[in-house]
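Predict structure. Chain length: 289.
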Amino acid sequence: MDFIHHFPQFFLRHKLIILLCKLRIQNRYTVCNFNNNSSAIVDLLDPEPRNTFITCSFEPFFFKIALAFLPNNGVCFDLGANTGFCSFGLVQHKPNVHYHMFEANKDLVTQIAKSIKLPQNKNTHFFNNHCCLAQHEGYSYFNIDPNQAGQSHTSTQEQQGIRINNLLLDHYCEQHDISQVDFAKIDIEGQEYPALLGWEKFLMHKRIKSIFMESFPRNVQKYGIDIRSPLKFLENRGFQLFLCKKQDFANFAEQPNLVGFPFGNLLVAKFKARDYPVDFSTEVLAVCN
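Prediction complete.
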């Protein structure tokens, strides 16, 4: 049962929700309404989705960035979709966009499939893909964190994991007759660089217009990847790199400016990949010239 939906929001607490789920008074999987008119199925025993359930809010800053690049009938790629908050949160603003979602955790893929059927989402085009994004065909092993799905990641050599088929984004775009991707979010726990390598053809031909990508040194180091490698890769293929968060504006970047993008203005600070500090964690905006 969905007992928890009858509670006033100010009464909700993490410990209370966990207790109700463990006592089977509340269903573990339920609908989460967030950002006014968006909905997704979430696992209440997973701390990050549970926090969104309690606050009814998910990263409004992200949506301001995405909406600056998405036309009404555009194409959005959600790489590392997790629960799907990013894509489902955009639907209220851009219902006619085609959303391509990629996730390696099968349980999350199942949740996404259920979320697609919710009333707020059912009239929008979604493509739900279970895979590991890579630079080569074959398969990868995926390590699932049982306590926090967002911390799951491609296994290192020392780790066990579940075998998942690889997907190259160049092949996917060709197979689905995708001529252009207007906006891509990449958050795949340190595998951003291999995913970009598998998308090199489309990147070289400037068919990816904008990318919002996680850049966390602690995630890439376990794979022996230099945090600057994906940034240099994009820069060498004609992308300009920007910091987007005021708290991240730093002395290695230019002075922040209000820049006009296709569908909105953003306060951003341009920087060069070579100047990015090896210990600096943030999300980076990459825009095709």
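Summary: The domain at 59-288 is CATH 3.40.50.150 (Rossmann fold).
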